[in-house]
Amino acid sequence: MTQSPLDIPELLETCIGHLCASGSSRDLLSCSLVARSWVNAAQSNLLRVPMDATPERSLLLRAPGLCRALKKFPHLLRHIRELDLESYDASLAPEVIEQLSHLAFTHLKSIYIRVHGESSPEALHRLVHLPRLRYLGLRAVLDGSYDLALTMLVQALRHSSPSVEHLDLHVVDFPNKPIGDEVAAPILLKSARLVWGPEREHYPTRISSVYPFNISELKALCTVAGTFVPWHTIPKQSIQILQLECWNDPDFCDISVFPNLLVLRLEVHVFSKGLITTLASISSEQKIHTIVIIDEYNYVDETERKELDLELVDCCSRLPHLRTIDVEAEYATGDEIGSSFPLLSCRKMFRNTSPSWERHNVLSWRDLVMNL
Question: For the chain, how far is it from start to end, CA to CA, in angstroms?
Fold first, then answer.
């Protein structure tokens, strides 16, 4: 009897992998019901990111239902690689996080948690200390119990798994003294995404000197601080991926001080000379291969895009290794954005990668650095 091609595990994985890339949870669910030989491949792709932020990928099961399913079928836990508990879904209450923390996630690599004042410290400690955890994201919820939530977050940081390589913090204020017991040897970070409040210029120093993290070999940095970052504390030689937010005219960063930079991502909130100056500071000796302009809410109008188009074309002429310039603008179509960058379009350098869902910025950053 001739064997069906879809009975060959490698071919089956490839075919179902294409379904996963297309973002159809319903198709993956259907595949899991076709044949016993399809179940493992379908479930593996379906549950890899069980609470994906993209609408077409999110499961019908929300957090409480997911907890019940995993308790009933614990063999499914081995498929889960990422948990995004930062979602604004009301079902992600502290008691749900408590339930998730008691599950034996053996292969979980990435977790993002909204920390409430009512959160259980023990639950947070269990989730951030998983043995294979590589990406840790924590956000203190800004409400009436924020101070307590911040304390919970800091204590969780100090119990981070030694396997953590990527740190993602979203806080308004950050203590400059340790909270809780002493920790073991510092954890060497590969990437850091830092979103913070008024005293932001002190935070990279605090993270590396007070908390259990070593940023001496940091390869990727994402910060809202712009020039407020104390760049003398950042290891410029090792940085390969840099993301900055551009706000006001005086704010710019000298990109030429990062000799090994490969990817530059600039998030625009106000079109300013600071943005142009930042791009103009790129040296022709650098090996940057990708520049991304993130204009999430279309702050840059059509006239300003023309000026930006000229500067980006100048970057193309200076950078021999530059392959693409991506523009992410959530509330505009590809044709609208493309017509505003005619020079880039003519050079075949322009690529519109506009997202279609919330929190794309966080997720694209995570996907980028997890490959380091």
Answer: 46
Find the helix or strand (DSSP H, E) in which 239 lies. Answer: none
Contact of 256 with 234, CB cutoff 8 Å: no
Indicate the residue type of 165. Answer: E
- Same-domain status, 257 and 371: yes
Residues 132 and 60 in one domain: yes
User: Could you tell me if 123 and 93 lie in one domain?
Assistant: yes
The C-alpha atoms of residue 92 and residue 113 are separated, in whole angstroms, by 9
Share of the chain above pLDDT 90, in %: 18
**Which of these, 96, 165, 157, 154, lies nearest to 129 by C-alpha position?**
157
| Dist CA 151 CA 134 (whole Å) | 22
Q: Are residues 225 and 179 in the same domain?
A: no
Instruction: Tell me which residue of 198, 256, 247, 244 sits closest to 220, measured CA to CA.
Output: 244
Is residue 63 within 8 Å of 52, Cβ to Cβ? no
The angle that helices 9-22 and 36-47 make with each other, rounded to 10 degrees, is: 40
Out of 47, 64, 83, a domain closes at 47
> Which of 70-84, 127-141, 154-168, 330-344 bottoms out in mean pLDDT, i.e. has the lowest?
330-344
19: phi then psi, degrees, rounded to nearest 5: -65, -40
Least confident of 18-22, 52-56, 265-269: 52-56
pLDDT of residue 271: 65
pLDDT at 39: 84
Position 60 scores a pLDDT of 42
> Domain range spanning residue 28?
1-47
